[in-house]
Amino acid sequence: MRRRNLALVLGTVAAHSPLSRADVAGRIGLTRAAVSSLADELIVRGALTEAEAVSSGGRVGRPGRVLAVSDRGPAGLGLEIGVTHLAACVADLRGEPRVWRRVERSNAGRPAGQVLAEAAALAAEAEAEAAALGLRVEGRVLAVPGVVSNERRGLVERAPNLGWHAVGLADHWPDPDTVPDPDNEANLGALAEYWHAERVMETFVHVSGAAGIGAALVIDGRLFRGARGFAGELGHIPVHPDGAPCACGSRGCLEQYAGDAAVLREAGLTRHGDPVALLAERAGAGHAPTLRALDRAGRSLGLALTAAIDLIDPDGLVIGGAYAELAEWLLPSVRAELAARVTVRPWASEAVRASALGRRGPVLGAALMTVRRLVADPTRLSSS
Fold first, then answer.
1. Is residue 134 located within the same domain as residue 227?
2. Which residues contact 21 (CB under 8 A, 6 or more apart)?
3. Is residue 346 part of a domain?
4. How many separate domains does the chain show?
5. Residue 304 and residue 203 share a domain
6. By residue range, what is the domain housing residue 232?
7. What is the rounded radius of gyration, in angstroms, for the C-alpha atoms of the chain?
8. How far is the C-alpha of 268 from the C-alpha of 329, rounded, in Å?
9. Dihedral of alpha carbons 257, 262, 266, 267, sign
10. Nearest to 367 by CA among 88, 44, 51, 166
11. What is the pTM of this model?
12. CB 211 within 8 Å of CB 183
């Protein structure tokens, strides 16, 4: 009961701060004495701060005191291993990102132990920077472009674009006390969208694209993972059943038409550096082959998403990850394809939009995962 009430007080202050103790008591139906005891514990744990209220002018007497979520103390660390980069983010208990780090690194085909050691080093740098800001990391989550086991904690079952199969993080992470929990990068990008974006939808499909294409389903505000964690494998939906062979063993998969390698090939471009940045640069310059390639990719993406719309009836679709940077050229053809094919229900073109979080979505979602867990269960917090 006390754990539930601690979460109730912290969640109420997080949603409506600053609030006085009396305000909190009035909102949640507990006594002022009970709220004061709970608030004192949350202050000791570093979750809340209390300060004099800012006067609105003209008031006399002793100023009141208000509670707010602390911008120091507890924090969540998010990490990401992408095909071409490593990233880290630290978010405070308010959900505000305070540390960002990103390094370009070709990770495909390299030994998992080497990649994870470099990710651990980046994590240590981010935690040191956070500590200088008065933050202490209480949990760590790692975004990976692959499927994470629902049964065995810490196991990445497969991440084909990295060349990983059955990689246990604890087997390779240098410090056993700081091993992060892995999760799929598309799932974390979708959660970041739900938790942090200004335009909140309760049921939506979040598409994350670059070397691979993944999707995440948020249904009534909850992430749908599927029975074994495989939900959202959009990149391997066949859009041309007799089309090009795919590395997964099937044919005509979406990744063969809308993955960055396919778009580069169609545009007549050679991969070097950041492929998405190269495509955006050429498209922005009006390079006709690139524009045609992006149009084809958008139509293939729209074809795959038609099934998702008809199956789950979402409020909208969000194009995230690196492909958010190509939305200017992808969205018109995605919308055109959907307009032609979604015929069993009303569908507005504005229901498809680009994520404002872009490439930062997955690593931010990883950091916010810890923050949300701490707010839901403040007993996880160590004392400050």
1. no
2. 32, 35, 36, 39, 65, 67
3. yes
4. 3
5. yes
6. 199-355
7. 23
8. 17
9. positive
10. 88
11. 0.90
12. no
